[in-house]
Amino acid sequence: MAYNFPVRDVQYLLNHAAGLDRLRDTGVWEDLSDEFLEAVLGEAGKFADNVLAPLNWESDQNGARLENGKVFTTPGFKEAYSQYVEAGWNSVAFPEEYGGQGLPNTVALAVVDAMQGACISFAMGTMLTTAAVKALLAFGSEEQKRLYLEKLVSAEWSGTMNLSEPQAGSDLANIKTKATPNGDGTYNIKGQKIWISYGDHDMAPNIAHLVLARLPDAPEGTRGISMFLVPKFRVGEDGSIGQANDVKIVSIEEKLGQHGSPTCVMAYGDNDECLGTLVGKENEGLRNMFVMMNAARIDVGMQAASVGEAAFQKALEYANDRPQGRKFGVKSGPAVNIFEHPDVRRNLYTMKALTDASKAICFANMVAYDLARNAPDPEVAAAAKEREELLTPLSKAFSSDRALETTNIGIQIHGGMGFVEETGAAQFFRDVRICTIYEGTNGIQGIDLAGRKLGMGKGKLAYDFIEEALANAEAAIASGDDDLKTAGGHLKREAERLKETTAYMVSAMSTNHEAGLAGATPYLDQFGYVAGGHYLLKGALAAGSEDKYLGGRKHIATFYCENLLPRAGGFAPAVMAGEDSVEELDVELLSA
Amino acid sequence: MAYNFPVRDVQYLLNHAAGLDRLRDTGVWEDLSDEFLEAVLGEAGKFADNVLAPLNWESDQNGARLENGKVFTTPGFKEAYSQYVEAGWNSVAFPEEYGGQGLPNTVALAVVDAMQGACISFAMGTMLTTAAVKALLAFGSEEQKRLYLEKLVSAEWSGTMNLSEPQAGSDLANIKTKATPNGDGTYNIKGQKIWISYGDHDMAPNIAHLVLARLPDAPEGTRGISMFLVPKFRVGEDGSIGQANDVKIVSIEEKLGQHGSPTCVMAYGDNDECLGTLVGKENEGLRNMFVMMNAARIDVGMQAASVGEAAFQKALEYANDRPQGRKFGVKSGPAVNIFEHPDVRRNLYTMKALTDASKAICFANMVAYDLARNAPDPEVAAAAKEREELLTPLSKAFSSDRALETTNIGIQIHGGMGFVEETGAAQFFRDVRICTIYEGTNGIQGIDLAGRKLGMGKGKLAYDFIEEALANAEAAIASGDDDLKTAGGHLKREAERLKETTAYMVSAMSTNHEAGLAGATPYLDQFGYVAGGHYLLKGALAAGSEDKYLGGRKHIATFYCENLLPRAGGFAPAVMAGEDSVEELDVELLSA
């Protein structure tokens, strides 16, 4: 199958749905013209389509393997990685000072979109390298920056994030890995880490591991965790690669998907010779890690949506190529392609609408992220920061949940062939399955939304968003376009219903946590559907529909509002069902 | 993991939700006491738990393989199969005349439930043998019955169904396999068939293939298809196994799941020496196959729900064993098991509620099936036949769609471990994926519901059901139990909304097919949720809640009505969105 990164669709979403102009208005990125963007995304698309996509199936069938303590990646990955580094795809949003291109993170996210859709197993690794860059940019010492940043910005070296341990997954308070100061500014690191993506591989000469660990005198719980930079090979004063650093790969996981991405169990300091240096201040490791988490969660949301797009393209191609059945009531004659059947088109439009709604949320999220850090007007920056905070759990959870549905439909459209691995439809379904789990399970995203985000200003972040969605709905209703009017009516109804559940949740979380927590996931679901409708409809209103392409975009947006957005209301009773609804039943009698 | 077939839950569903008493009332099965049922299901459960369940993981990792034209099954399958035959599990609902036990199909379905939950790859094979028995019972000649039935009833020999060909999947009108009469009552069969589950294996000495093929002078399309009985080895007059019958296994598929169930590409008559005999009348093969299809579709629905139960049990065990995090707001102290978190309980209750709702629909469906064939009162039988027809697409599609969700949540509860194959949670998710596809894709179930079933009496089947659900809702509202009252309110609202969409669909299907077909899938979704709520609530009302066990059942029912049933309403706008909503867009511009 040929994957084609949909440059035009992405530009449409960036410009019309996500408000890229607001970044242009900051004056920080004066050269960010449509032509420039098209050129960047066009080149990223070429790389994704021609270099990465052809490796995707191979990455599944011939995934990473561990031999004699070393991880070997899928044949072709190493060469593709060199080209990726050479072309500078890793450095899009990083400072020019370290070899970066100084573009907005939003543009980098569009580049991520291209790569993830082509080969998620490959792009998973570079996503973590960019996270490591962000950590060092924010908290690294001058020495750490001098020795590592340029290498990581280019991705000549790669980076990893080491949080989980067997007893500490979602709950990082339980981290036990130890860091003992040596008195010379270095620390001895000792402990086991799990779920380390690209903990080892053969594509880069060195790897910078960011590791959460405890100092000897650290307080218990989350306030006693520090972050350390632990290289695979020690690095000399001149940046040269030195001796191996007592970092052992214990095993790699046999996973449902993403076979090309090695998920490592790591042993640090088995021989007490693992040296690391402190990143940021002592005992602030978790807090610092969470500073990066927002961007990483948006990345994961986009990653999932990107795979959804790839699954959509594959299903669309099949639907236009597979003759089966005739139109309803026609008893004889040749079979028509299944695209001719209304139910198959419903499936395809659902895939595209969910994918683009997810991408629109992620892009709007990253525009807010960039604005929060770059808007000259402090009020604009503060409002953007709030929007970033609100949208992050939605980007992560809604996109990944919907990508499960999208890739699932992709299999369905293929019929029996979809269940046969060789077809490739099932790979998307397997690969994307982890996205609802890592970087904080979607359950935790729900708690983040209900607990932390609604807690800011008694629901202010949510109410501000809802008012914006209502204004958007009113604009659609008043647009004079019948389709947009219908869509606007759906958005208005669902936004109003979201206001009601928001009031319930704000109250519940401040008076009865258990009731609020019981409603957190359906609230997240409901909110996600409304957010998707808001951004797609905003895009359709802003872009107009004067040509066939824009007409198609408008149709996807109105299809979403009429067919998918109403699901939001279906979650509302569950949001408000209260703690009794999930009371603790006798476990022995739950299945008897 | 230990799987335990939940005998008590199944008896509860049979008695209180599905109305097993109506079968007792026919007088046909006078011995069908609760004690007897418990004994049968208890024994089936023991077999499933102790013999089949331990093979499940092995069936995934060490699936069927093709060597030198022969299929070898997972180690242990052969021995388990012998025990299955020996114990008589295949013969539950078949006539005593052929060695069967003469019990209702509903009881056989409960036995199927036990087996499928333990090891779907194993139980898939015997499910097809029972379908072959039904075909021969209904349409076989005396000779065919004499030579085959006893062997197939016991499952000493196995059976297969051969419908699909590469160009004829959902659309069987395109079948090309040829049957040429030899003048002696036999036919030469020639052609290729695909998706043949257990087309070959090493567990039985002979296999009876039921094959759809065309006679030389057959009309085109579906009216020119006949059914043939084609044995793997020819059978002598005395029932002895003779020479091989020119049936070749071309290949077996590498599938996403059900690795233990060989899915074969079959070549019949490559050497023009494949002999078969006609089953039923010429050119009536497809019609006859569809007579069996109803039962097979209910079986598939149950199969999916059974896997959902297994996934639930595994997730429940994990949730009670995995400490992670503290209660909200508690900053220190030991971690609690994740069952303590409201969101995890929501996930678990959702799994169980969807599973039991699905099973309730399937059991009610099979009670109607049995009643239709056994009720002494012709009016009762006719009404039951209508209910059977209505529920069949719901059993098949709702159960399989929901099992995808259930097994998906099962992975989610395991967190990162869920993505690791060794955990086993992912196997359920992979194995069950095919259930939305085979025996007619769920899209086709939607068309069956909207086209054929609503077409009977201008929606009478649906309206009759809705009135029953409304009466049930009123009874719950009037019950004096607050929880049931709330649940009844939800059922009432959703049943009324279903009445509206039903009126729309009945009208659309008779005046504008495209609009009706565009709404078929969301209508099926909506109907399925309402049906699940109806049967669970009916069960809770009938059973009462006087002890802890019944209280738990009631809670699952009311949880469903408050948290999941409202999703039904979320589909209603999509049902009525009309044909414009899925208008044919320019394919080139759908992803650009």
Automatic annotation (TrEMBL), chains A, B:
GO terms for molecular function: flavin adenine dinucleotide binding; oxidoreductase activity, acting on the CH-CH group of donors. Residues 38-156 form the Acyl-CoA dehydrogenase/oxidase N-terminal domain. Gene3D superfamilies: Acyl-CoA dehydrogenase/oxidase, N-terminal domain (1.10.540.10), Butyryl-CoA Dehydrogenase, subunit A, domain 2 (2.40.110.10), Butyryl-CoA Dehydrogenase, subunit A, domain 3 (1.20.140.10). It is an enzyme of class 1 (oxidoreductase). Its EC number is 1.3.99.41. The keyword Oxidoreductase applies. Its cofactor is FAD. Residues 283-450 form the Acyl-CoA dehydrogenase/oxidase C-terminal domain. It catalyses: 3-(methylsulfanyl)propanoyl-CoA + oxidized [electron-transfer flavoprotein] + H(+) = 3-(methylsulfanyl)acryloyl-CoA + reduced [electron-transfer flavoprotein]. InterPro entries: Acyl-CoA_dh-like_C_dom (IPR025878), Acyl-CoA_Oxase/DH_mid-dom (IPR006091), Acyl-CoA_Oxase/DH_mid-dom_sf (IPR046373), AcylCo_DH-like_C (IPR036250), AcylCo_DH/oxidase_C (IPR009075), AcylCoA_DH/ox_N (IPR013786), AcylCoA_DH/ox_N_sf (IPR037069), AcylCoA_DH/oxidase_NM_dom_sf (IPR009100). Residues 474-586 form the Acetyl-CoA dehydrogenase-like C-terminal domain. Residues 161-266 form the Acyl-CoA oxidase/dehydrogenase middle domain. Keywords: FAD, Flavoprotein, Oxidoreductase. Involved in the assimilation of dimethylsulphoniopropionate (DMSP), an important compound in the fixation of carbon in marine phytoplankton, by mediating the conversion of 3-(methylthio)propanoyl-CoA (MMPA-CoA) to 3-(methylthio)acryloyl-CoA (MTA-CoA). Belongs to the acyl-CoA dehydrogenase family. This is 3-methylmercaptopropionyl-CoA dehydrogenase. It comes from Parvularcula maris.
